[in-house]
Design goal:
Rossmann fold, 286 residues, alpha/beta, two-stranded antiparallel ribbon, 18% strand, 40% helix, elongated, Helicase, Ruva Protein, domain 3, single chain, 2 domains
């Protein structure tokens, strides 16, 4: 059984199956065994683990995961990759491939069926264009989740880690920090992929909190406020929230809530911490 983590072997399979990269899926396959080994190491996969892989491609990282984990389920949206995966993963009886859009998979039911309610580890080389919806979908599913170790565009990794008042700080930063502790593990250069992307990448590990760092009575309300606050980033919070059609709150309500929190009426959303957004969500009703 030949490992796929090198350019020649990857090219061989792509030629054999006459595979063509599809831009709409954001496909960039890893071709560096050193990077693959580092991902397995930092994701801390053991023989007790069930791993969910998103976007296995031709199975390059799936092979490494299968040798480290108890069981792997890989969800691949591109049906033209399924015959390749059947061949490249034929030596592993602990891998299941699902040809589906991860955003349409009931991942909570999948975790229950495959791992009997125990925490799952997610590992993925994520398409850049859909990183945020996938990350949010994993958290919002409230599936039992231990960690998410993913390759993402460096800019997105920076946004996940960003703090208040910085240019990268936004709704994604707050969402990730509400659900998990985030640590950028290492950077990956464009030359480690086929085809070569135009930007640098980073592997980031998100460790799911057992208990969220702030209390909110309604998560959906808090995230609706956050979304509205950053939807018009350069506007004051009073203007952003009172102009948001989905909220139906008045300038007076927002101003009074900010006064209650000892915050200036001209403050912008980018200046508020997660704790302050949580408090705001309990002072404003809609």
């Amino acid at each position: 059984m030949a490992y796929l983590g090198n350019p020649a072997k990857t090219a061989e399979y792509l030629k054999k199956y006459q595979f063509h990269f599809q831009k709409r899926y954001g496909q960039n396959f890893l071709i560096d065994t050193h990077i693959l080994e580092k991902i397995i190491q930092v994701s801390a996969i053991t023989k007790d683990d069930f791993v969910l892989e998103i976007g296995p491609g031709i199975g390059t990282m799936t092979q490494y995961l299968a040798e480290s984990a108890r069981e792997v389920t890989a969800v691949e949206i591109d049906k033209s990759l399924i015959p390749i995966l059947h061949e490249t993963l034929s030596a592993y009886d602990n891998v299941t491939v699902i040809n589906e859009d991860i955003l349409k998979v009931d991942i909570r039911a999948l975790a229950e069926n495959k791992n009997h309610g125990r925490p799952v580890k997610v590992v993925a080389n994520l398409p850049y264009y859909i990183t945020t919806p996938i990350i949010m979908g994993l958290f919002e599913s409230h599936m039992p989740l231990e960690s998410i170790t993913v390759m993402v565009q460096k800019e997105v990794a920076d946004r996940m880690k960003a703090g208040p008042g910085t240019k990268d700080y936004g709704a994604l930063s707050l969402a990730v920090q509400y659900y998990a502790s985030a640590e950028i593990m290492f950077m990956v250069s464009p030359g480690c992929f086929m085809p070569r992307p135009g930007v640098g990448s980073a592997v980031i590990r998100l460790m799911r909190y057992r208990q969220n760092p702030v209390f909110v009575s309604d998560e959906r309300r808090m995230f609706a406020l956050i979304k509205a606050a950053f939807g018009q980033r350069r506007k004051t919070l009073v203007n952003s929230l009172s102009n948001a059609a989905m909220l139906s709150v008045s300038r007076k309500e927002v101003t009074e809530a900010l006064e209650e929190m000892n915050l200036r009426p001209d403050i912008r959303g980018e200046a508020l911490t997660l704790e302050q957004f949580a408090r705001l969500s309990m002072l404003i009703s809609f």
